[in-house]
């Protein structure tokens, strides 16, 4: 929806001030009404006794609001052709407790890079980066990953890179309007004397939403507040448009996801080897049904458990080697050179598991 022109704003404001409960358009369409005398802005301004309101508010149906926001979206996309940024604070409260924080999303549409930064007040910030046609850099957050990186001799790493040549900014990141309000519903439009416009409606995921657009229908700010079952989440966002400087993590602070997964798997190799051996032994006993243990069955079932352990870990850590009467289940950490091993052997009607 195009922003109303200044004469139309004055006309609508004067109509409200005169106490006429009709839409400005209806006043224009009916020359016989008293409002017809307001059709000339000059005549309106010439009357010293006429009061001009600073704004006018109109109820919009869901369809009308969607059409209005579509215009805002179009103007906003054009303004952000080279890039845009959104930054703001948030607060969350529940059960007498609360926390605050801030978040920022930057889109560089020249170099096709985006980043999202998030922080809770008093805690370190967390930043993710997306590079179109390359992949996503996520922060190293959990303690196990940190322990694995230390074990691997790479404690300076801050990002985990997941390669994905199909990733794009448009598919992976929301637009400015979608960031503030994923869905559009019926609500109100308030047009101010300076040409700016506020749109208010409710979104099922973020609650009561207010979008602020400038005189060119470009989104400049947004607020939202959601209260549900004792939880209240409030957010404020400010936007700016133009080319953004979004740095991409360098090699020294990055590790690819597959390598980190392998490192974590070797960090936990002792338990993986043990479970493969003991679970394989248990499966063999069950298969024997109280009879004599068959070596071939033992090797098959222990091998199956080792494969399951490797699949769960995401890396081929656990190895199985045939030995007399059974198998040797083992692993060697390529970074620390430490090893762990168990033997699983058939002995009559028993399966014997020993740490090697």
Automatic annotation (TrEMBL):
Record keywords: Signal
Signal peptide residues on this chain, from the entry's feature table: 1-29
Domain of life, per lineage: Bacteria
Protein name: Htaa protein
Organism: Actinoplanes italicus
């Amino acid at each position: 929806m195009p922003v109303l022109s200044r004469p139309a704003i004055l006309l609508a404001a004067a109509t409200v001030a005169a106490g006429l409960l009709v839409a400005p358009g209806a006043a224009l369409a009916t020359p016989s009404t008293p409002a017809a005398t307001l059709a000339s802005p000059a005549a309106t301004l010439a009357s010293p006794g006429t009061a001009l309101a600073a704004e006018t508010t109109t109820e919009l149906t869901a369809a009308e609001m969607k059409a209005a926001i579509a215009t805002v979206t179009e103007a906003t996309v054009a303004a952000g052709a080279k890039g845009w940024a959104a930054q703001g604070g948030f607060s969350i409260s529940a059960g007498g407790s609360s926390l605050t924080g801030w978040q920022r999303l930057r889109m560089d549409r020249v170099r096709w890079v985006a980043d999202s930064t998030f922080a809770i007040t008093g805690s370190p910030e967390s930043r993710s980066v997306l590079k179109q046609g390359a992949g996503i850099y996520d922060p190293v957050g959990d303690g196990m990953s940190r322990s694995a990186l230390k074990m691997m001799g790479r404690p300076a790493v801050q990002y985990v890179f997941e390669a994905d040549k199909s990733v794009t900014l448009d598919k992976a990141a929301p637009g400015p309007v979608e960031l503030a309000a994923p869905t559009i519903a019926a609500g109100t439009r308030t047009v101010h004397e300076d040409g700016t416009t506020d749109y208010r409606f409710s979104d099922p995921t973020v609650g009561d939403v207010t979008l602020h657009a400038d005189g060119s229908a470009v989104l400049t700010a947004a607020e939202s507040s959601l209260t549900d079952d004792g939880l209240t989440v409030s957010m404020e966002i400010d936007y700016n448009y133009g080319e953004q400087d979004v740095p991409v993590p360098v090699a020294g602070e990055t590790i690819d996801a597959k390598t980190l997964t392998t490192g974590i798997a070797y960090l936990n190799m002792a338990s993986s080897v043990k479970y493969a051996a003991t679970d394989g032994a248990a499966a063999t006993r069950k298969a024997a049904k109280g009879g004599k243990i068959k070596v071939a069955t033992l090797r098959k079932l222990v091998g199956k458990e080792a494969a399951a352990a490797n699949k769960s870990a995401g890396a081929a850590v656990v190895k199985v080697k045939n030995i007399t009467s059974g198998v040797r289940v083992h692993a060697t950490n390529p970074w620390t050179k430490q090893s762990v091993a168990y033997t699983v052997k058939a002995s009559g009607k028993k399966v014997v598991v020993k740490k090697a």
